[in-house]
Amino acid sequence: MNKAILILWPSFIIGGIGEVLFFTVFDPRELYLFGEPASLSRLAVYSIGFFLCWAFAAASSAFTCFLQKSAAEINRICPLEPSARPPGCPKREEPGTPGNG
Q1: Residue 86 covered by a domain
Q2: Is pLDDT of 36 > 90?
């Protein structure tokens, strides 16, 4: 839940700023969709624009949180058994070594 708040709250602010900046330059009545004028109301275009800006900002924030993981967090869980790990792996256990059970 904490990560969701860390991602969605800043992206909400950036989504609002992005929408304001975009619609300061472009009028919703002048937007075209597949070569045809958009037949949506101004409120619908503003709403869609906000949610698109919010989605892009949320994706960017989520990707940033993903990249902030340390190597220890990423490598904490190894799906391989200790004896099946590749040579050179610090967690590899050779057959016949103590602690191999």
Answers
A1: no
A2: no
